[in-house]
Design brief:
Elements (H helix, E strand, L loop, with lengths): L1 H6 L3 H22 E9 L8 E9 L2 E7 L10 E4 L4 E4 L1 E6 L14 H11 L5 E6 L4 H12 L7 E4 L10 H9 L10 H13 L5 E4 L1 E4 L2 E4 L2 H13 L4 E4 L3 H10 L3 E2 L11 H9 L3 E2 L3 H10 L7 H17 L3 E2 L14 H9 L4 H8 L1 H6 L17 E4 L13 E6 L2 E5 L5
Parallel strand pairs: 1-4, 1-5, 6-7, 7-8, 9-12, 12-13, 13-14, 14-15
Antiparallel strand pairs: 1-2, 2-3, 5-16, 10-11, 16-17, 17-18
Helix pairs in contact: 6-7, 7-8, 9-11, 10-11
Bound molecules: zinc ion.
Zinc ion binds next to loops.
Length: about 425
């Protein structure tokens, strides 16, 4: 049929058409078929790993996964030899900020420069999806467009855009001014609700409130009625709400307003009793631990350095209390506010808080996928799931810091980071 149609056309046109078709076919098989061969494969946090397994990728999706001997690799497939390496589903970091000096004015960056910045902060640590929980929405949208268009290599970015605060926290005020960025302060609840609607229209995937903000003269707490109004508006649009908290009073506001994700522990306040942790779990609240944030703040001089060990231990104890009460932990580091891109210390502290390698893997994959509505196609290695994968140099169940030793990061079936290579 096609041949008959082609032969009825003038030869020059036919040749051109054939060349286009051939180019499409060749491009197709090279761009989209990839096989990871001979790895230890953690299919999910709850299944036993495959030894000597293979993952076959086609068109951005996982086409097959199984023992190496059982997975048939079609001819023309690009092979990544993963002997001695470990494959897991792509990692999520559910607390980042697309707000670093290198990313805050993306319009002045070339797509390659954007790739370099995203690599330093995210993709070289295995993140294939991140939740940005405070940035400039217009700027973050521009970066997302570049990634979607294939001009920039980066993770899937979900964003809340501009956060909602009564007063700009003291530690971000000068940074925003120096970078000519403006995030408004809320004047009233009706105005805040309007802004929620606007940000959702502009593409926000969630909303972030500052239940507390640190000011010169102490910690300011958002009025409960205001928090409730913002959360109700976000939920009316089906969007999750994150809350920054600095103390347990802020957690009470988060609890009473129906916040979904707590952005930090509160090591400077009272420890979390089992009963308190139970209340968080009963309210279906998730937590991004950001344990190393406290070390970052101490070293910066924002917290008393003498109490560093005590502060870190208290934060880990609070995470442990939450976790043992059955709480939903979402890996998150506050990177982009901190410039501590290396994740190894965070993994060590999570393990110290009592989490096993499988439980930490869940916080990196299945927990956020479920929490944010992606679990039908993301978070596990299974047929037809997103080909978002991390290849590690060692087994995190033998050494927890192996979670930060990334060999390749693969997003939608494309290798977006290879260790030792610049983008
Ligand atoms: Zn943060």
């Amino acid at each position: 049929m096609l041949t008959a149609y082609l032969s009825s056309m003038r030869p020059r046109v036919t040749l051109a058409l054939l060349l286009v078709l051939a180019a499409m076919l060749i491009g197709h098989s090279y761009a989209s078929d990839l096989a990871l061969v001979g790895a230890k494969v953690y299919l999910s946090p709850t299944e036993p790993p495959l030894e000597n397994g293979s993952v076959l990728i086609h068109d951005g999706r996982i086409r097959a996964v199984g023992l190496r001997a059982k997975v048939k690799i079609p001819r023309g497939t690009k092979i990544l030899d993963c002997t001695g390496l470990v494959v897991t589903a792509g990692f999520w970091n559910s607390h980042v900020h697309i707000l670093t000096p290198g990313l805050i004015h993306a319009d002045k960056l070339s797509p390659d420069e954007t790739t370099t910045q995203l690599q330093a902060m995210l993709t070289q640590w295995g993140f294939t999806t991140v939740f940005d929980i405070a940035s400039i929405l217009k700027n973050t949208n521009l970066i997302r467009q570049r990634i979607a268009a294939g001009e920039t290599k980066g993770p899937r970015i979900l964003t809340v855009g501009e956060p909602f605060w009564v007063k700009t926290p003291i530690y971000v005020k000068s940074y925003l001014e120096a970078n000519h960025a403006d995030i408004p302060e809320i004047q009233s609840t009706p105005e805040a609700r309007e802004r929620v609607k606007q940000q959702v229209r502009d593409g926000a995937d969630g909303i972030k409130i500052f239940a507390n903000s640190i000011e010169q003269d102490g910690i300011l707490t958002m009025p409960l009625e205001m928090a409730q109004g913002i959360v109700a508006e976000a939920h009316a649009h089906g969007k999750p709400v994150f809350a920054h908290v600095s103390n347990n009073k802020g957690i009470e506001v988060a609890l009473e307003s129906g916040v979904d994700i707590l952005a930090h522990t509160t090591p400077m306040d009272d420890l979390w009793s089992p009963a308190f942790a139970q209340r968080l779990v009963a309210a279906h609240m998730a937590l991004t631990p950001t344990l190393t944030l406290w070390e970052f703040e101490s070293r910066k001089g924002s917290l008393p350095a003498a109490n560093l060990d005590e502060g870190m231990n208290r934060a880990a104890e609070q995470l442990g209390a939450f976790f043992h009460a059955g709480g939903d932990v979402l890996f998150g580091t506050d990177v982009g506010y901190t410039d501590w891109f290396d994740t190894s210390e965070e993994f060590r502290w999570m393990a110290r808080a009592g989490m096993s390698c499988q439980q930490i893997l869940a916080s990196l994959t299945t927990n956020p996928a479920r929490r944010f509505g992606f679990s039908a196609h993301s978070g596990r290695i299974a047929k037809d799931f997103d080909a978002d994968l991390v290849v590690l140099r060692a087994d995190p169940c033998k050494d927890i810091s192996a979670f930060s030793q990334v060999r390749y990061t693969i997003r939608n079936g494309t290798v977006i980071y290879t260790s030792g290579l610049s983008p």
